[in-house]
Write a structure and sequence with these properties.
mainly alpha
């Protein structure tokens, strides 16, 4: 396993842990002192990070191409 793959797996694992934590006790979006806090947007960003990791991990996975010569 390459260092890149290990890092991607760690990022995915950490992001999934945060997702589990914030979805266990969902919070509303709000604005305080002119600063907006959007939990929906944050959740979407976390999900996008997991999808990004999945794409990179799939691209890094070994694969086999089967072919057959014609007669």
């Amino acid at each position: 396993m390459s260092d890149d793959t290990a890092q991607l797996e760690a990022i995915k694992r950490q992001t999934l842990a945060v997702l589990a934590e914030i979805t266990a006790q969902p919070k509303p979006s709000y604005m305080i002192d002119g600063q907006a806090v959007s939990w929906t947007e944050y959740l979407a960003q976390l999900r996008a990070t997991v999808a990004w990791c999945d794409e990179r991990l799939a691209a890094a996975a070994p694969f086999e191409v089967a072919s057959q010569a014609g007669t």
